[in-house]
Design a protein that fits this description.
heterodimer; A: two-stranded antiparallel ribbon; 2% strand; globular; disordered C terminus; B: alpha/beta; Rossmann fold; 4-stranded antiparallel β-sheet; 11 helices; 10 strands; 23% strand
């Protein structure tokens, strides 16, 4: 089975081991350590780590399409935000009559805008299962339609990157409008509880953190399953020699579409887990800058490794947290400088420094291969 | 006679019981048939009233000076370029002008590019695996497993192209000649009925050339092979029938001797070299 194959791999086992160990250690330190201990992990830190894990899942999704399929998407923030909005709509409807205006059905911003009834696209979001399906479906459908049109017309390379960028920018402008019914530039916020658990309690925060970790593990295994399958090798083939792949009888556009949609759905899940942890979703998640930042995480961590994307996302965001605390103005320069340094000195990213990916493949074969070739 | 008798007749061979054969209909002889094909790019006539027929199992060499339209012709056959007018048939059943590149590939037309194009980030073995004739839709590809009979088939081809020792090496580290062979090997994995081979010996040593010639000759008969080549020595060593293209149409056709004595050919092509 393509999904269980990664579990037999050493790299996946190491990754999952590290991830689950980190989840366990953080949970134990948070629950059992006394508050004044140096080892105590505060609820704030737990949520911060949960946020990093959301970014890590998003980075894995981007690495799947960029690293293995050669599609540089500068619009993955759009899928992330759509997943986030689907979750946000569910959380809004969970507020019920506890809002400022106390309307049992309408969210506060609709009452404020004098809306009389719920727009049709808000129907059903009071049910968790429906909202969770929409978390996958909304980004998936957008990716399906967008990808179908783009890949069928054989739009690739820089042009595709620019179009994805335009896509997320257009969505940002649309979501800024109050008439859209998604809360305009304030977005959705003031959430109370999720699945009946109060979002402000430490236990719920820890639960969300662990759920995010598990989602990252599942997302990683799905991606790893795809890239180690024959389809993964076809993806690499599409990336490196599209015409050749087509003449072998593969429908390149369908391979691209499939992988793109899977990636968009994973990004949607990341967004959905992000929203209850940060407590707000607004159109700034659609901003082109955010989408470019995701690509920088992946590039820093190391392309086409998946775990590199995770490392990159966590390290860069940790750096961002630290830096913006010390000197907020310098952060963008630091990020830019880091990007340049890594591109020049570490073309394979941080992952290339930590491990030697493909060692078993090129290094062990190169000498014998060259001898035989000589 | 009742239906019962008809159904129980022991001599009866039902159609669904007969083994499936290739869908390509070659009962009338030719496997590839181009008629009055015209292509122009921005007013430049790359192909000009081209007529060409390749018989089933034939080994055909196509020569011609630069810009004669050889590569464009291959583009048309494989569906990459659509002609302005004319018709292109594969066997007598398939109109290639209505089919997409992957469709044409799965019908059984394999193509080797002028510049060797292999998947450099994958191993030799994986290159052949991807080329293998199989269900190439997305989901079957996702769940595909490596079966022993596939492995045997790949080993067989590795043997043929002389890359058995290197099957775990990345294709990117192969020499130019080895890449050429790997690409030919990928074509063989596709089990094509018709092989289009664009400049197979470009950049090969004398020895490698000889082996390539042997390989192509051994293929002819089982498959139809069309070779486009510049190297006249190589063409002479394998050719039975040669077609000379010039300015997008056929200038001469026949055995190597006939063609090389053809006055027009001497004038436009061989004359330059002599």
């Amino acid at each position: 089975m393509w999904l269980t194959r990664p579990l037999q791999e050493r790299s996946t086992r190491i990754f999952l081991g590290v991830l689950f160990a980190a989840l366990a250690i953080v949970s134990v330190l948070h629950v059992f350590m006394p508050q004044d201990s140096a080892l105590y992990v505060s609820a704030y830190t737990v949520t911060l780590l949960g946020k990093y894990l959301c970014y890590a899942l998003l980075a894995v999704a981007v690495d799947l399409v960029w690293g293995y399929l050669g599609i540089l998407s500068l619009g993955h923030g759009a899928f992330f935000a759509l997943g986030g909005y689907a979750m946000g709509m569910y959380l809004m409807r969970q507020i019920g009559d506890r809002g400022v205006y106390g309307d049992p059905i309408l969210p506060d911003f609709m009452v404020f805008l004098n809306w009389q009834e719920l727009p049709w696209y808000w129907l059903g979001f009071d049910m968790a299962w429906f909202a969770f399906i929409m978390v996958l479906l909304a980004p998936g459908l957008l990716a399906l339609v967008f990808g179908f049109l783009a890949f069928r017309s054989r739009v690739t390379g820089v042009y595709l990157s620019i179009i994805t960028q335009a896509l997320t920018f257009a969505l940002m402008l649309a979501f800024f409008r109050n008439e859209m019914g998604f809360g305009g530039n304030n977005g959705l916020t003031d959430f109370k509880d999720i699945l009946g658990f109060d979002l402000r309690t430490d236990a719920t925060r820890l639960g969300l953190f662990i759920a995010t970790g598990i989602a990252l593990a599942i997302g990683y295994v799905i991606c790893r399953g795809i890239v180690t399958s024959k389809l993964g090798r076809v993806s690499v083939a599409c990336r490196d020699a599209e015409a050749r792949t087509r003449f072998l009888g593969y429908r390149v556009e369908r391979v691209q579409l499939f992988v793109f949609v899977v990636s968009a759905m994973l990004a949607g899940v990341a967004g959905a887990l992000y929203v209850p942890q940060v407590g707000i979703i607004n159109p700034s998640e659609f901003s082109p800058l955010f989408s470019i930042e995701i690509v920088v995480w992946v590039a820093l961590g190391g392309r086409a490794t998946l775990y590199g994307a995770v490392i990159g996302a966590i390290l860069v965001n940790y750096g961002k947290t630290v830096f913006t605390g010390i000197m907020p103005d310098a952060w963008l320069f630091a990020l830019g400088g880091l990007f340049v340094l890594v591109t020049v000195f570490l073309p394979k990213g941080i992952a290339g420094l930590l491990f030697k990916p493909g060692k078993s493949r090129d290094a062990s074969n190169t000498p014998s291969a060259q001898e035989a070739a000589a | 006679m009742s239906i019962f008798q008809e159904l129980t007749n022991r001599d009866q061979v039902f159609e669904f019981l007969t083994p499936a054969t290739s869908p390509v209909d070659v009962r009338h002889g030719p496997i590839l048939y181009l008629e009055d094909v015209n292509v122009s790019f921005d007013g430049f006539k790359a192909i000009n009233n081209l007529n060409l027929t390749i018989d089933d199992g034939e080994l055909r060499c196509i020569i011609g000076p630069n810009g004669a339209g050889k590569t464009t012709m291959m583009d048309i056959i494989t569906g990459k370029t659509r002609p302005d007018t004319g018709s292109v048939w594969f066997g007598s059943r398939h109109n290639l002008l209505t089919l997409s590149e992957p469709d044409i590939a799965s019908l059984g037309i394999g193509r080797k590019f002028q510049k060797p194009t292999v998947f450099e980030a994958l191993t030799v073995f994986e290159n052949l695996e991807l080329a293998m004739a199989a269900d190439k839709r997305v989901f079957p590809t996702l769940t595909a497993l490596m079966k022993p009979e596939y492995r045997e088939r790949i080993d067989e081809v590795l043997e043929m192209i002389g890359l058995k020792e290197l099957h775990h090496a990345l294709a990117g580290i192969l020499s130019h000649g080895q890449k050429q062979w790997l690409e030919i090997g990928m074509l063989l994995m596709q089990k094509p009925r018709l092989l289009l081979v664009d400049e197979p010996v470009a950049g090969m040593t004398e020895q490698e050339m000889e082996r390539t010639a042997e390989l192509l000759i051994s293929l002819a008969g089982k498959q139809s092979v069309v070779v486009v080549e510049h190297d006249m020595g190589f063409v002479r060593s394998i050719a039975r029938k040669v077609t000379v293209l010039h300015q997008g149409s056929v200038l001469a056709e026949g055995s190597m001797d006939q063609v090389s004595n053809h006055p027009d050919v001497i004038k436009v092509y061989l004359g330059e070299e002599a």
